[in-house]
Amino acid sequence: MTMLARMSEEVGELAREVNHRFGEKPKKATEADNSIELELGDILFITICFANSLGIDLTEAHDKVMHKFRTRDADRWTKINTDN
Questions:
Q1: CATH number of the structural domain spanning residue 9
Q2: Are 47 and 7 in contact, with CB atoms under 8 Å apart?
Q3: Taking all residues of the chain, what is their mean pLDDT, rounded to a whole number?
Q4: What is the DSSP secondary structure assignment for residue 27, as one 8-state letter?
Q5: Domain count, the chain
Q6: What are 28-58's pLDDT values in tens digits?
C-alpha cells in the first residue's frame, strides 16, 4: 500500500510539472526547480522498487506489454491510411 501511495504522489508531482510547462498554471517563485525528466525518473525508480517488492520481473512484464501493443493494440496507436 505504501508503494502505491508513493507512486501516486510521484505521478501527481509529474502532473504538476507538466501543468507548469504546458498548462495554465505557472510555477510560483517559491516552488522547487524540478523537471519533467526528474519526475519521470522518480516514477521509474518507485516502479522498480514496487516490482521488486512483489517479485515481478519488469523485463518480462515489459516484453508481455509490448507483445500486446504489437498484436491486439497494433491499430490503436498508428493511424492507418485506408485511402490506397
A1: 1.10.287.1080
A2: yes
A3: 86
A4: P
A5: 1
A6: 777 777 789 999 999 999 999 999 999 999 9
Q: Which three cell numbers stand for residue 11?
A: 505521478
Enter the pTM of the model: 0.73
Higher pLDDT, 8 or 71: 8
Report d(CA 6, CA 3) in Å as an integer.
5
Residue 64, domain member (yes or no):
yes
Q: Which three cell numbers stand for residue 77?
A: 496507436
**Which residue reads 485506408 in cell numbers?**
82
- What is the span of the domain harbouring residue 28? 2-70
The CA-to-CA distance between both ends of the chain, in Å, stands at 51
Q: Which of 81, 82, 64 has the alpha carbon at shortest distance from 73? A: 64
Higher pLDDT, 63 or 30: 63
Which amino acid does the sequence have at 73? D
* Domain contains 38: yes
Grid cell listed for 64: 508481455
